[in-house]
Write the structure tokens for this entry.
Amino acid sequence: MYPRPIISTLQSPRVTQPDGAWTFWVGVPGRFAADREVAGERIPLTVQRGVDRTQEPTCWSDRSSRGSPSPGWLGQAGFALPVVLLLVALLTALLTVGLTRAANDVQIAVASQAVDEAIVVARSGLQTYFGSVTLSGCGRARRPSDGDSVRINVTGGYADVVARVVLRPADSLANWLYVVRSTGRVIWPAMGATPVGNRTVAQFAEWQSGELALPAAFTAVNGLNRTPGGSGQLHGADEHGTSGCPTAPRRSLRVPAGVPDLTSYDLTGNPALGGGAPADIVTAARIDWAAVVTPGRIAPDFTSPQPDDGTYPIQFVTGNGTLGSAGATTFGRGLLIVTGDLTVLGSFVQWYGVVLVGGTIRFDAADQRFDGLVASGLNRQLGLAPPVGTIGGDYTDIDYNSMYVYLAMRPLTGFAPVANAYTEHWSTY
């Protein structure tokens, strides 16, 4: 049985038979040489004219040699494999690129989230540092040293805060300028203890010592007259009783004009002093009254005097104010600021802390006592002329007490951020 013949259309011309049939010389492929005595032997193939050959198998082109086949069905089958391999390689490359890009997108999203959280951690650490004040044994705030650093644990991680002195005035009581930077480090428990992101923010801030340089227990910048009767005491010596904490004594009274008759008053500390320009007295006391009365510069806790609850809040009264009420007993404490006049009423009034009044203080209570510091007539620094105050006709007791002063000024002690001096792009080296 011969293998399927290959018609040689190129090398074997057809021969027409007498009966109209076509005869071709057919070559048997060399790979079937085992079935024939001689490989490549030609045998005649006769095809009858008019015979339906549609059911016959399609013939192949002749192999002219044992080399590569001529173009045809076999050539197409051999070409498909490289195409398939090329397509598979192309799809693999596209899939690899897609997976790599997806992985990069996920990594970028995670990194962005970590940086955003690091900013929050850094801000939290910065605000915590600004709100923390180290106190001495006498309750006085300690100014941070240059290079002061602390690690603050907050929700989501921790912040490393460092404060550097930028401007150090010659006056030790003046405000020092710092730049405080906070580096927030984010901790994700699932990723271990190593921070997954960090960011540094910085804020310029002034250190406020909270010191009041008022020269006397009672500083009446608007002047003071004496009315008949009455008594009391004006103590310029520090009455803070803790051993080792009292400060240098102050004057009992400071006025810009003559000192009134105080013969019925008990006086301690340095002698009362009169004379000098009213505005200069305020300036020497390191009080910027214009800044104090500017809205927004001081954030008060209350806008009217409050009953004593053991705390030392800021109570800011715009215009005239009243401390106490007729026939009542009143206790209060903290920092009381009144931009206008202050009237003291009641059978007994006791205040612990600092009282700063822009206008005149009217001492109309039967018994009024102040432990800390008191000042009136501060509007003189603004060019205004509040009327001269009076003392007498009742009992008035004003004693300098450094402890109550520090407690009342504590809300204004510490770092005060400088406006428009914050950045989230602080370089670290």
